[in-house]
Amino acid sequence: MLVKVLHHGSCSKSNAVLEYLDENGVPFEIINIIEDPLSELEIKTILKKLNQEVSHIIRKSEKLYLEKYAGKDFSEEEWIKILAENPSLIQRPILIKGSVAMIGRPVENVKFFIEK
What we know:
This protein is of the alpha+beta class. The protein contains 5 helices and 4 strands. The protein has helices spanning 12-23, 40-50, 63-69, 76-85, 107-115; strands at residues 3-7, 28-32, 94-97, 100-103.
């Protein structure tokens, strides 16, 4: 089954997962979330596949988060809108396989996801 990878080219973890998939012959499609940002609906769909709330996919170590959003209280809907407008704040890579998804860190966890 084809694995979709929500990817950011300058992210070492994201690049490591792509390398792992390639080395292990896993067919995948790259979705560059910086060049082609996700819509609010796509983010909601991914959250359902992750079975997580939006707070789970926010990169809280990102400079933009620390400068603009840290310590502020936003609703789930507001965060989804913020992430759609600021894709660098989304955890990556996120792997999607059919109706399930996972954040691809650490790369060792990807093996179990692929084999399921």
